[in-house]
Amino acid sequence: MIQEKAEFKPEPVFEKMPAEKFLAELAAEVEKRPDAVFEKRGVIKYQTPEGGKTYDFVRIISNDIKPEDKILFIRAGLHGEEIAGPMTMRRHINEIIDYAHQSGLKVVIYPLANPSGFESGERFNIVNDQGGEGSEGTDDIIRYELSDGKIVDELEENQPFRQWFFPTAPRINARLPQEAALMQKELKELTQTGLLWEELTQRELEEAPPPPIVAAIDLHQDYITPDAPPSAYHYNHNDQVATEVYRKIVEKIEQELSIMRGAKISAGFKTSMKSDKYGFITRHDGSLIDAMYRLGAKHCIVVETTGATQLEKADEVNMLWIKGVIDLLIQAKGNEQLP
Ligand SMILES: [Zn+2]
């Protein structure tokens, strides 16, 4: 039977769904594997007008991580309306773990950083809790103390600072939203188990070799920059790494989607910045991936595709980044082994 054109409705590519369903599907995939585990790391609880709601905060981690291993860290789903990251996790989790393991790398993945927001489609969480006084919201991970003692959550370009610290430190003692508090707990544990370095001074950071977690990728979409056409751009949180290093990845992305090269981008920041010729914005904004840089990770990337980008394309871009960074890490490994 020939279907009439007017009746044809394409299946939605991927939609928000109960977090429990998403996580159960992902768990079922990972539980088939002997080489990785799906772990519940914490519970997020909210009181809503409909009653109490709880959500699992989970991670997926390779088995048998040894001190000499190199690890790729991935986070998805911090902003609830940005479903491309969780979609990439749901569709490609096996492919990602396989690709990393075949390359001799391990993974630590937080596939749904804000489960209630994912479920509701809200940017923050189901009760829009962005923390108490002094909190900077769900991605409030580190703060900077400037040379005059002032404390800020983001640095201007090349702005010197005295030190950085977690916002739960006694001097601020901010009440963070549960999503940020749980992520900080994870960072502290990854530090204690030696997968990230202890808090380093800038000089130590520049001299230290990377810790086992050598790269960190955070998958986002940008629904904030007004009138942005379908396109991709990216953040580099390690200003010691020239963005030229990622040129091949950017060129592959550009075969699929235009890159915002040299564009003014303001998404979610107090001051807008111009992306460089590869589509990068380099800044220290106190976010998770900025914290990963301070804790020693070498490749610290936030992936952005604009909200006007088809989900399928956003998913492709996410995978080009994940596989591209793995390829870079293997190359680096190869070079280390040269005489
Ligand atoms: Zn985002």
Which secondary structure elements does this structure contain, and how are they paired or packed?
Blueprint: H1 19-31, E1 36-48, E2 51-62, E3 71-76, H2 84-102, E4 106-110, H3 115-120, E5 143-146, E6 151-152, E7 161-165, H4 178-192, H5 202-207, E8 213-219, E9 232-236, H6 247-254, E10 264-265, E11 273-274, E12 280-282, H7 288-294, E13 299-305, H8 311-336
The protein binds zinc ion.
Zinc ion is lined by residues 78-79, 82, 220.
Cofactor: Zn(2+)
GO molecular function: hydrolase activity, acting on ester bonds; metal ion binding
Organism: Candidatus Harrisonbacteria bacterium RIFCSPLOWO2_01_FULL_44_18
Provide a descriptive summary of the structure in words:
It is a single chain. With 339 residues, this protein is an alpha/beta fold. Helix content is 29%, strand content 22%. The chain has a single domain, classed as Zn peptidases (Aminopeptidase), CATH 3.40.630. It contains eight helices and 13 strands. The strands form three sheets. Strands 1-2-4-3-8-13-9-12 form an eight-stranded mixed β-sheet, with helices on both faces. Strands 6-5-7 form a three-stranded antiparallel β-sheet, with no helix packed on it. Helix 1 (19-31) runs parallel beside helix 2 (84-102) and helix 6 packs antiparallel against helix 8. It is globular and about 65 Å long. The relative contact order is 0.15. Bound molecules: zinc ion (ZN). Zinc ion (ZN) binds at residues 78-79, 82, 220.
